[in-house]
Amino acid sequence: MKSDTRANTNIIELDPSRLAAALRAARLPLTQSAMMKRLRGKYGLGWQSAISALEHGDRQPTVAQMIAIEQAGGKAPGFILRAAGYLPNPDTRSLLETDPSLSPTVLPGLLAHFDAVKDLP
Q: Is the dihedral of CA 71, 75, 58, 61 positive or negative?
């Protein structure tokens, strides 16, 4: 990560081809036209040409644009950066261990059950 002191923001330099593939994956199974209709001009993405430019690596999306694409495509937050290889894919056990909605009384039993069945075919 490179820090831009002029604007006091962090800039992530992303590989255009990996990011473009991740953006396409976030859109699928929708067409660019269907995605455009769902976005309806949010964050400068209301035009099919804008979506196409992102998917072809002609420009990089902002964080807000990535979030909007993930939401419109029905993908989980962070899908694009995970698919592009910039965030790790957490394993299920780690997700369970860090889920704040699971009470400390339920978690041990749930983890024991998960460990017992995780390698079953």
A: positive
